[in-house]
Amino acid sequence: MEVAVRQIETSGTKTRGNRFARQGFSVTVGATQCLVIEDDVGCEARILGGQAWITADNTPCDTIAAKGTGVLLQRGVRTHVSAFRERAAIMITPPEHLGEVAFNLYRRDGARVLTVKSRPSYASLAGGWTAIAATFKRCLAAARLATVQGVQP
User: pTM for this one?
Assistant: First the structure.
């Protein structure tokens, strides 16, 4: 299987009301084998060139998408993508609200697998540390007050 891979930043895949992030993962697939996408975030597959044959596990129908078409991938569902004819170039972009995501391409059982997972935001981690610090301050203040009043904590 011939798969060319490039992780790039684009200006987005939709012009008005863009809900997909600037980061993306670009792949070129052939018709002989497919690329398996394990998407945990609900990405969009935008066809940049050629035609792509897209099949999601446990769905009754396939999608054949032409150049310029965007196909929403189902979150948590394995999706198989191959070229409908010779080659297809595809850009995988996550939803914009996620911030950063992790793309990982590897080989499993002879097939190329692309996983897409969200990365924890440092801002959300900072909020957790702030809550821990506030709790510690309250406990420390209560211990000081008890010590001043002659009660051992």
Answer: 0.65
